[in-house]
Design brief:
about 85% helix, single chain, mainly alpha, 5 helices
């Protein structure tokens, strides 16, 4: 179960790495405009804010990666950062888009459950 759990955690980390790229580098490019459903004007007005969001997603990705690299000693890292993913995903689903629940929060919930169950 540990290898499976680490794969799930790494997938969540990869998602957040992807979010970093979208928000920091592709926000005002065609793919970013399409993913976030906004106009060039909206993207230009919010580019700095999105870049900041992307940076935070990068921190989450690195925290999860460190948790996996540390093996069983990384349990606390994995639990903390996955809990952050879940809370941010729920908040985003309530305040921004319901889609965030499925793209961010649910993968985080599965990762968190697997991490907790694999430590038993």
């Amino acid at each position: 179960m540990t290898i499976f759990t680490d794969v799930v955690v790494l997938l969540v980390a990869l998602l957040h790495g992807y979010f970093l790229i979208l928000e920091m580098f592709l926000w005002d490019k065609p793919v970013g405009l399409k993913v976030f459903g906004q106009s060039k004007e909206q993207a230009a007005a919010t580019k700095v804010l999105a870049s900041n969001q992307g940076l935070y997603n990068g921190f989450i990705a690195v925290g999860l990666l460190l948790g996996v690299i540390q093996g069983s000693a990384g349990y606390d890292f994995k639990v903390y950062f996955l809990a952050c993913v879940v809370v941010a995903g729920i908040y985003g689903a309530i305040t921004a888009s319901r889609k965030i629940l499925f793209v961010q929060a649910i993968p985080g919930v599965f990762g968190l459950l697997f991490v907790i169950l694999s430590s038993q």
